[in-house]
Amino acid sequence: MSQATATTTRRGKQLREQLRRYIPAAIVFVLALLVWEMVVTVFRIETFLLPKPSRIAAVFVQEAPIAFRASLFTMRNAVGGFLIGSVLGMLVALATARWTVISEGMMPLAIAINATPIVALAPIMNQWFGVLDPLSKMSIVAVMVFFPVMINMVRGLTLVEGNTLELMRSYAASEIEILSKVRLPNALPFLFGAFKISSTLSIIGAIVSEYFGGLGPQDALGAYISQQASDFHFTQAWVAIIVACLAGILFYGLILLVERLVMPWHVSLRATEY
Amino acid sequence: MSNASVISISNVSKIYNPGQDSRVAALEDINLEIHGGEFISLIGPSGCGKSTLLRLIGDLIAPSVGTLLVNGKPAPQARRDRDYGMVFQQATLYDWRSVSKNVQLPLEVMGYSRAKRETRTAEMLKLVQLEEFGKHYPWQLSGGMQQRVAIARALAFEPSILLMDEPFGALDEMTRERMQMEVLRIWGATKTTVVFVTHSIPEAVFLSTRVVVMSARPGRLTRIIDVDLPQPRGFETREQPRFFEKITEVREALRREEVRGGATS
Questions:
Q1: A42-56, A75-89, A198-212, A252-266, range with greatest mean pLDDT
Q2: Residue A143 sits in which domain range?
Q3: pLDDT value at position B265?
């Protein structure tokens, strides 16, 4: 009984401490908004250059339903492309780590793909898959996600401590067992590092590709931004930026959650107490 | 010690990068018979090839010349038959596995049933006195505890030979002495043949039935010293005059090599 109360008070204390950690960030955020509002007012900056936060907030309330609906399509494009790019990246990484010949053959191509300006690629993908096919957007995202996932996975598969491999050798373990029991678990932290980078990258990729999509403003965030900007509705564009940020944070948070579930043992996730 | 020869090393040499400028003669013409149930320490200056010799016995590397028979079989066959348990200076535990899952790993590879795995793991954790830590993760344990898990893992599949490469080298002196007692107790309980690499003279004398003294460049066996201290050994062993005599004997054997090496080079 007394132990139970002790646990609850400890949990309460932990919660308070966690909240306290967010206080500085919250203060900085509010201060930044205040400064922004003041600078725009004092220097009389035109709305099309930089609207006041209060004005953005007002438009946000009014535009939110459309912007959030558009963000659903953007999320679909981002997540779809993320999955395609990640799966391809992981498969190529597996092949690369197993057969060095593939590594030597694939690397220049992978680097070339990574160096491709996606802005140039977007209209081409629209031609390939058709503007209305979500694949034309997902493929752009996939191209962006492929490289970080592949590179990190290869590192995770190959950067295994020598003694660990010697141990597996002393057990007379097969290549498959070494892969499943050592290399893949070893690659997980690297892979999640890549997923985290890719989650926000894929939102950016989706929006850029939608920008060239030529769809109606309700269909996706990129198209919405492009439409509003061409109509000189810059405050609406700012609303879209905020929604895009929120989508990125949501996706990132989702990856963090999965990471916590998949590898609670990792250094970065260890509780200080246990 | 009248047991049959378990490890038989004849005319073994190991040359790294043969035919190149970076060629290194790590070991030259090694001959050594190790009998069942012995505790052998390999000691010598760094670069004398003691770790190389251990790796040759365990078939982690192949000899350039010579033959290595383990339990009457060539070393690669002995490895495939899982005759070796290995412990390194670093515990090399798998971060993503709990303590008991770490001990189970070799058993999984070797296809033990789940029930067998669990009973073996419980036995092993009891042997190294970590029964209560099965659910902990490696990072939650001290260095000495991690090394005990590594020993439990190495012994889980009942290998006839335990190969240990400076297993206590990274531990502080007090933990080290406790671990030495532990390993002697385990050795007494399991009747395993142990080959132990160390650069600590007292450690070699305290643990071993025989100490193999090696010299560097090229690595050679220079002397084999019988340590006839009574078994089982304990804290009082370290206080016996005979213990100090043996330490002196090993030290002088090592120093003679140093002097000889200094004179020739």
A1: A75-89
A2: 53-269
A3: 41
Residue among B88, B105, B157 minimizing CB distance to A163: B88
Cis amide bond preceding B159, omega within 30 = no
Q: Which residues of chain B have pLDDT under 50?
A: 1-2, 263-265
Whole-model pTM? 0.81
Query: Are A61 and A33 within one domain?
Result: no
Distance between A171 CA and the closest CA of chain B, angstroms: 6
- CATH code of the domain covering residue A166: 1.10.3720.10
**A178 and A262 both lie in a single domain:** yes
Check: complex ipTM more than 0.95? no
Q: Does residue A14 fall inside a structural domain? A: yes
| Residue contact A170–B58, C-beta within 8 A | yes
* Beta carbon pairs, A and B, within 8 Å: 57
Q: Degrees (nearest 5) of the Cα angle A138, A246, A270?
A: 95
Residue with tokens 């670069």: B47
Residue A122: predicted pLDDT: 85
Query: Which residues, in sequence order, are CB contacts of B82 under 8 Å at separation 6+?
Result: A170, A171, A172, B106, B110, B157, B159
Are A170 and B60 within 8 A, CB to CB? yes
Residue A214 has pLDDT above 80, yes or no: no
